[in-house]
Write a structure and sequence with these properties.
Layout lengths: L1 H15 L7 H24 L4 H22 L7 H25 L8 H12 L9 H24 L5
């Protein structure tokens, strides 16, 4: 069941490509796809069907969802240069975290910390706030939390502690 929910997220993400950005149909598909991301792991744990395949499918579905959202939203948002720079710094910290772990332990890991989950939730909500909160303010708040999460992730990776 969980893998079906994850598969639905992939289908919904692809359907987003055919909706005008920030339209009611875009938001409807976006919300349902986001909700599916929130429940697929819980369903897998509840039904005892957690699997390596399901984990990889979930990661793939997340990548498709994020890529489609970026493709649709970046052209219609007016993002200041300082925000692109901040996002790039966060991405570099996260890539360094992955590289350090890979070169020291020869494994790729994904840290599912509370801060990473909070960041993901805030990123999901961000497009829903565009009509009433200036992107510069909402994105700055998300970037603060994402920066803290990335630094915490580096600490956890280097200490070999997983939450």
């Amino acid at each position: 069941m969980a893998n079906i929910i994850t598969g639905i997220r992939i289908v919904l993400s692809i359907a987003l490509m055919f909706c005008p950005a920030l339209s009611p149909s875009f938001y409807a598909l976006y919300i349902v796809a986001g909700f599916s991301d929130m429940i697929d792991g819980a369903v897998a744990r509840k039904t005892g069907t957690v699997s390596e395949f399901g984990s990889r499918l979930d990661t793939g579905a997340d990548i498709v969802f994020v890529a489609v959202c970026l493709i649709k939203l970046l052209p219609v948002l007016h993002i200041p240069v300082w925000l692109y720079i901040w996002i790039a710094i966060i991405a570099m910290i996260k890539v360094m975290n992955i590289a350090v772990r890979f070169f020291s332990k020869k494994e790729f890991i994904s840290v599912h910390s509370v801060m990473n989950k909070v960041t993901g939730g805030m990123l999901f909500v961000l497009p829903l706030t565009l009509a009433f909160i200036d992107l510069r303010y909402s994105a700055a708040i998300v970037c603060v939390v994402a920066t803290i999460a990335a630094i915490q992730e580096g600490y956890l990776v280097n200490r070999n502690v997983m939450e």
